[in-house]
Structure prediction request, 462 residues.
Amino acid sequence: MGRLRGLGSFALIAAGLLLVLRLLHVGVPLFFPDTRPGPFTLASLDEVQRRVGFAPLVPAYRPEALGARPSSLTVTLSPQPTFVIVWRGEHYLSVTQRRGGAMPAHPAGSQPLPDVADSTWWRDGSQHRLALKRGEFWIEVETDLPSRDLKRIADTLTPY
Amino acid sequence: MIPAYWYAPLPSFLWQVVLHSSIMGIVFYAWARHVGLPSGRSKRRLLGLLLVLPLLTAAIPGRAGLEFRERLAWLDSGRVLAVPLGAGIRVYHVILLVALLMIALTVWQELLPALRRPRTSPAGVPEGLARFARSLTGWERCEVVMSPSADIVLATGGWPRRPRLMVSRGALGQLTEDELAIVVRHENAHWQAGRWVRSHALFLVRLLQCYNPVALWSFREYCLEVEIGCDAEAVSGRDRRLLAGTLLRIYEATDRRDVATRGALRKRVDVLLDGPGPDDTLPVATIGIASAILLAILPWVV
Prediction:
């Protein structure tokens, strides 16, 4: 044990400090809830504005095949305030709204969606994906609906 | 919340270097106190690791994302950085301020003095002193120069093939021949056992972390430990009190406001008079395993 002299005290000190760090990780958000970056699951669209500070853009065009209600509403606060709404029925639609930051990643072969300003769309397997710039927001649409529905979704995005 | 730029690759890396070196610094400091670590090789190893390891652990990619920070990380420092302190100020503002202060301190206390070369000349150097310096190991081609300063100053510099010893006029006037010889031996020791290479390599590592207060502290401690190591080599087989007395004279001649220099001199004298402590307090294997543990743990703190 002579060759490992002092290792026990190191382990104790390191473990003690790690415990303190974990307490900080768990304890800080209890006292300062807005220090947690999320993701937070929301129960209603009414909560979005309060959580992320902007009104969510929601497509008015929603085929019945997506289901009657969104399956999830999620917000994250960091690095950029972001809101994600997902419908999941016979088909699937996800709309991500992010304030600021870089343009969403897109393949080199992506192209503008006809008659939709500041748009880029591409096919990703069975899914269609669309990136839009709306004011200070980047919008990402991801769906397995037919490609003609992309334009309808983009055209009917309205603040909630 | 903290701003998005904090999570860009470079700021995120820079912050994690500070975070990881702070955690390592606390662990090593408490450990050294607990085992009563004396000055010596083990302490220099810990300080060297403290400068280098955080650069490795902070560079591990893929940890800045929300998924990692929220679900996998042991600590997401973003939560602590976002704690409000009042008047719109959060903890990360204080961190930014400290980093800026450290950069200013580095420029003022380290870079400017390094660039501002003292006015020196080979003229007036006693022949006996130059001959003695060139008789020491590795100093056959040593350039000995004199500074007109009236203070007691001896310093070494230059490059491995062309070392340089600077002696002030004050040192020549105030130190006896024996005192001068032992201080020159101390300066020569800076060139032995790889000390020059290690010190300069760590200085570069320290400059990379010019914003990091832990790196500033650990590099200064490392330099003090090197001085103590050189003192030990200079007095090896000789009377320790001679060098201790010389250092005390320099201590007394140093401006009282220069607390850091006086503190370092005081510590060197104490170590010289107390004798060297056991240098095997922390065996190499122990330090190696401790480093491996930290290498494995720190990436989970973001």
Q: What stands out?
A: The first helix of chain B runs from residue 9 to 35. Chain B has a mean pLDDT of 91. Chain B is about 65% helix and 10% strand. The interface with chain A takes residues 1-4, 6-7, 23, 26-27, 30-31, 34-35, 66, 69-70, 73-76, 78-80, 82-84, 281-283, 285-286, 289-290, 293-294, 297, 301 of chain B (CB under 8 Å).
